[in-house]
Specification:
Strand order of the largest sheet: 2-1-5-7-9-11-13-15-17-19
Oligomer: single chain
Number of domains: 2
Largest sheet: 10 strands, mixed
Number of strands: 19
């Protein structure tokens, strides 16, 4: 099968509002001037403003990124500006890189951002994404990652939500790399709503660790974590989700679910849903369903003429629901399913 990466250029040609960053340098920008939207590229000597000073975590890879980053791509959406069309951001690495993306949504702003992180040869990547979602703002963020099987990647996403704001984070790990991904969301304002959905597919001897944290520091805040995983061959995939409701954060909601399929006889998929609750007047739940593909479903599809691999891919297609909006585009649909076929070959 041809490498799906070869088709990325076709995706780019078919989309509006595209920014392509190659090795930290913007090489394509089809965005016309949009009122209320500011986009800047900051080099290693330029620092983000004070809005991002407190958006950090105690993590060695994050500290390394903050200290050694090569570039930062900075988006700011002004107060009450509601951008109707999504922005498509492509990060192409031909060598190892340390990069940041920062997004500031001012009060009442709306932004939909899609990003695709990929490399064209073996490389390491340390990527840090930061977002401040101010009061009453709405942020829809989708990230697709696809790196070389001998690459090593560290991806951290840090989001801070103000009162009555809403953020939906959808990430899909479709590469073959050894990877650690962590998403940390802090609900700082009353009635903030945060949803994090993660898809991860592993194969061969790949190892992937995905950690998701939602911390409630406001009353009546809502946090939802969903993990979907497929482990094939001799690979290892681990999900760890943490929902934390602190003392006094009454009427908050923390929910978490994990669904996983193990295809390879020697594959391993771990799910560790955790809840830390220090308040009584709340709603919280978690669950995990990990196992093999239903044999009756598989038999039924094969009895209709599908090969075993084709039947497996069709069943697992349901795991790609968080990417449904992308798959309405014919070229994206073909590309994503080529990535899926690569994981289940």
């Amino acid at each position: 099968m041809k490498n799906p990466i070869a088709n990325v250029d076709a995706l780019i040609q078919d989309l509006e509002n595209v920014i392509v960053v190659e090795d930290g340098r913007v090489v394509r920008n089809t965005l016309s001037e949009i009122a209320g939207l500011t986009i800047e590229t900051l080099d290693a000597n330029q620092r983000l403003n004070e809005d991002f000073a407190a958006i950090t975590v105690e993590n060695e890879m994050v500290k390394s990124n903050e200290k050694n980053r090569e570039t930062t791509l900075y988006f700011r959406v002004s107060k009450n500006v509601r951008l109707k069309k999504p922005i498509h951001l492509f990060f192409k690495n031909t060598k190892s890189s340390i990069h940041q993306t920062a997004v500031l949504l001012e009060e009442g702003a709306t932004l939909s951002l899609f990003e695709y992180l990929y490399d064209t040869q073996i490389a390491s990547a340390n990527y840090l994404f930061k977002a401040k979602v101010s009061e009453h703002a709405v942020f829809d963020y989708t990230s697709l990652t696809r790196h070389h099987r001998h690459s090593h990647t560290s991806l951290h996403r840090l989001l801070r939500l103000g009162g009555r704001s809403k953020a939906t984070v959808q990430t899909a790990q479709m590469g073959d790399d050894q990877t650690h991904q962590e998403t940390d969301m802090l609900l700082l304002g009353e009635r903030a709503q945060g949803t994090i959905k993660t898809i991860a597919l592993t194969n061969r001897q790949q190892e992937a660790v995905v950690r998701t944290n939602i911390d409630h520091k406001a009353q009546r805040s809502e946090g939802l974590i969903e993990h979907y995983g497929v482990a094939n061959d001799q690979s290892f995939l681990a999900f760890e989700g943490v929902g934390r409701i602190r003392k006094g954060m009454v009427q908050s909601v923390a929910k978490q679910s994990n669904r996983g399929v193990i295809l390879g006889a020697n594959a391993r998929l771990d799910a560790n849903p955790l809840l830390y609750i220090d308040e009584y007047d709340i709603e919280a739940s978690h669950g995990a369903a990990i196992g093999k593909i239903d044999e009756e479903q598989l038999y039924y599809l094969m009895s209709r003429g599908l090969s075993e691999k084709a039947a497996q891919r069709l069943i697992i297609r349901g795991f790609l629901a968080p990417l449904e909006a992308l798959m309405q585009n014919e070229k994206f649909d073909k590309h994503i399913h080529a990535l899926l076929a690569n994981k289940i070959e």
